[in-house]
Amino acid sequence: MTRFLSGLARLRRGPWEMVASIAIGLGVVMLMQPFFLAAFTWSFLVLLTGTVLFIVVSHFPEDR
Amino acid sequence: MTDTAMGRVAEATPPGVARRIRGLSDRAIAWIFVAPTIFLLLAVNIFPLIWTIRLSFTNFRANRPNAEVESVGLRNYQRILTDADVWATMQATAHFLFWTLFFQVLLGFALAWLINRKFRHSDLWTTIIVLPMMLSPAVVGNFWTFLYQPQIGLFNYAVEFLTGVPATSFSMIGEVSLAPWAIVIVDTWMWTPFVMLICLAGLRSIPESIYEAAECDRASPWRQFWTITVPMVLPFLMLAVLFRGIENFKMFDLVVQLTGGGPGNTTTLTSIDLKREAFEKWRTGYSSAYAIVLFVTVFGLASIYVKALNKVKER
């Protein structure tokens, strides 16, 4: 956990890609779940944030 | 030199052109070769994408090209993401996507595993299994509507034979509870062979020596399956899921032929809904925003999936 947080602080690719992937996954679940319309409404914002973040952080340096 | 094709081309090249090419660096020549492809990509993929993004913020209607186009800001996105019908369409797509991938992976892997065990006429069986994949989706959709007919359809009679439920008592494509499963069955029937072929390639790429070493270590067939077969086929399987996932997310022709999106809206997948909005209701701005929502979904999913695939390959 400490390594993950330090990776985030030092702008490393691995942890940030993990954050972006979680946002994308969460966005897709929110988009397709049958329970809350409010979650569907906000899904695109979460998905778009995750996708843009993924594109940006894939240019961050790898953790050695 | 003059005997070869290259020599003849060199001889036929006008001296002026030859001098100009000789003066170019390798990088410049590479750019000359790549430029047509980049131009085509920009013209066919990138430009329409940017144009769609632009249209998604307007009230443009393609059937009224001369009408004044007004900017509506985020209103199209707002309407899509608060519309209960679009939400229902997303759920129908999720149901279709999840179950088709589940059955195709399960059956495709099982078939590949069976075909990989060499037996008499295994090549003939492979050809027979692969046949559905070679048919046109429109044709498949059309003949499965006949197979699903309650009075004359073979499918209903097969169900009656296996379960005792009278053939005429249910309609696969006419009932709200059965129609989503009807499209899952047909897509699974058609595309399981594709997953099977990819899995078969994975299974055939595993060196026999690994199994021999495992047998020397007295590993049981069950353990060999879980520690050798599955991990080594996994990248291929993931690739198949990626291809089928993207294809099924934009599934259109098969479902339109089979159910037309009905009964009601139970089998209206996002692509069908999008087509109706764009080319039946002519709400081009709204449908552009709809297309962007779908594009971001597929793009995001594909990104994390490719990352996972690379991780599996690295192992």
UniProtKB/TrEMBL annotation, chain A:
The chain crosses the membrane at residues 16-36, 42-60. It comes from the Bacteria. Keywords: Membrane, Transmembrane, Transmembrane helix. This is Uncharacterized protein.
Automatic annotation (TrEMBL), chain B:
Keywords: Membrane, Transmembrane, Transmembrane helix, Transport. InterPro entries: MalF_N, MetI-like, MetI-like_sf, Sugar_ABC_transporter. Residues 90-305 form the ABC transmembrane type-1 domain. One of its GO terms (biological process) is transmembrane transport. It holds the Pfam family BPD_transp_1. It is a multi-pass membrane protein. Its main location: membrane. Belongs to the binding-protein-dependent transport system permease family. PANTHER family: GLUCOSE IMPORT SYSTEM PERMEASE PROTEIN GLCT, TREHALOSE TRANSPORT SYSTEM PERMEASE PROTEIN SUGA. It comes from Albimonas pacifica. It is found in: Cell membrane. This is Carbohydrate ABC transporter membrane protein 1, CUT1 family. The chain crosses the membrane at residues 28-51, 96-115, 127-147, 178-203, 224-246, 288-306. GO terms for cellular component: plasma membrane. It comes from the Bacteria.
